[in-house]
Every structure is written in C-alpha cells, then in structure tokens.
Amino acid sequence: MKYIEKFQYITHDIPHLSHIEQVQLACEAGAKWIQYRCLSKTDEELLQDINAIAEICDDWGTTLIVTDHVHLNGKADIQGFHIEDMDADFIALRKLVGNDITLGGSANTLKNLIRLASEGADYAGFGPYAVTETKPNDYPLLDLEGYQQAIRELEEKGIDLPVLAVGGVKIYNVEALMQTGVYGIAVSGAVNFADDFIEAYQDFYSLVKESAVN
C-alpha cells in the first residue's frame, strides 16, 4: 500500500505567487504532499518548474505529485501523477508509469470511484464539494450526504480506496467532511488566498489530522 497523505495541497496559477513560491511556503508550513497543478505552460517551462519544486520537496521530505502531464514521467523527480480526466484508462496509465509511481484520479460519482479502484488507482479526489474558482466545472456538487453514501457503499463492496474531499473546501467544512468517512481533504484556494498562507495551511493540516476517523 502506497503512502497517501490525508491533507493534500494543490498549487494553482495565481497572480501573486508563482508555483515555486507556493511550494516553498507550503513546505515551510510542514506540507507532506504537494500536487503541482499547472495546465498553462510548455513542457520546457513545466520541467523548469518541476525540477525547482522537486528540489524543494526533496529538502523537506515532501511527496511531489504532478497533475496530468504523464509524458513527463522519468524526466524529473516526480513521485506520482493526478489524472483529472474522469474517463482516463488507468490500466494503460499504470503500464506506462510502472508500479512505483503513485496514480490518483478525479471522481464525481460512486461509479467513477469504483472504476478507479478496479483499475488500480492509489487514491481519488472526490468532488466538488462546493463551488470552486480553482477548477471551474459543471459537475454536480457533492453534499455531506453524498460523501457519506459513497464511502458507505465502497465499504459495503469491500473496496479500499483512499477518497479525498476536494473542490471549494473551507476550514469550517473540515470536521463535518471528515466525519463522513473520507480519508482526507485536498485544497488550493483556501490556502492560496488566505491572509496568512502558512497559518492557513497549518490550521487545515491540524484539523484534518484531529478529525480523521480512519
């Protein structure tokens, strides 16, 4: 079983902080897991970012996951990939990257979750919980009952897949979300746009750990 962190931080294209600056701050705050999410750069620019970020993560002992861009596997010190395409073929992806690389996927329905588990994904980001400006989409929002029901059905089917609530999650949502049985929480904007990035990160991290029921 691969290590999957319960509180995952996701970088984003924002005007006031570069991805590298976001990662530096997150690591200073104690981040154990960073998802580099940049869909706006060329491969050359991505690799420049990723190599700098990988160095920072290495210094802090932080896991580095890259959103999509699986073709960059082996070209930088990347521990895993998060695939946002809910129709992606994870069996083919696993053959491509090998067993040592962590593979996570996005999901919006129980059916998505079951397929991810059956195709060997290591974890799932399940959402959106609320409206999110980080990743605008038309997927139906999942309320607390939606999370609770999905987790219960996975358990009934004997499916062991770490499921993280994602999409517009605020600090005041954490306790209730964790009580649904989700494995953890992933955030971007709630930390990136906080008055104090490091304090916001640490508040989230502590609350997720304290609220964990599994």
TrEMBL record:
Pathway the protein takes part in: Cofactor biosynthesis; thiamine diphosphate biosynthesis
InterPro entries: Aldolase_TIM (IPR013785), ThiamineP_synth_sf (IPR036206), ThiamineP_synth_TenI (IPR022998)
Residues in Thiamine phosphate synthase/TenI domain copies: 17-191
Domain of life of the native organism: Bacteria
CDD domains: TMP_TenI (cd00564)
Pfam families on file: TMP-TENI
Record keywords, A-Z: Thiamine biosynthesis
UniProt protein name: Thiamine phosphate synthase
Species, as recorded: Pedobacter jeongneungensis
